[in-house]
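PROTEIN DATA CARD
Card holder: DUF3293 domain-containing protein
Chain length: 144
Origin: Actinomycetospora aurantiaca
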Amino acid sequence: MQAWEEREERFAGYRRAGLRVPGLTELRPADEGTDEFPFDGPVHVLTAYDPGPARYGAAENERRQQALLEDLPAGVQRWSAVAGAEDGSHAEASVVVRGLTDAQALDLARRHGQDAVFRWTAEAWSILPCDGGPPVHQGWRTVR
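Structure generated from the sequence above:
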């Protein structure tokens, strides 16, 4: 498979990815519309797990995630989270952060080898590609 085909396959998965913030909320992408937004401003979802097409074991992924957490600027709010496939076939430890600009979130993601960052606002669940490609904006719903 060509590199661009692999990228497109991964991004198709990102468009279906949901988010669980234990004790707070669970989000699923939707074609349009939004639900009650649980934060008081935009948040980004970051991970250092399995960058791009790489697939590491649990210990390496945990080491990588810890390095990402240590790279977060002081003062950003953070919540532990899990992002992944709706059917549970793939999940990655993540962190929801409030207080970063898109540029800061993308810089962190690039430094940790990631393809993209999720941005969640009251208006959209967005995928921001690290390679400068166009963002994808979707609706979202919380799971009740």
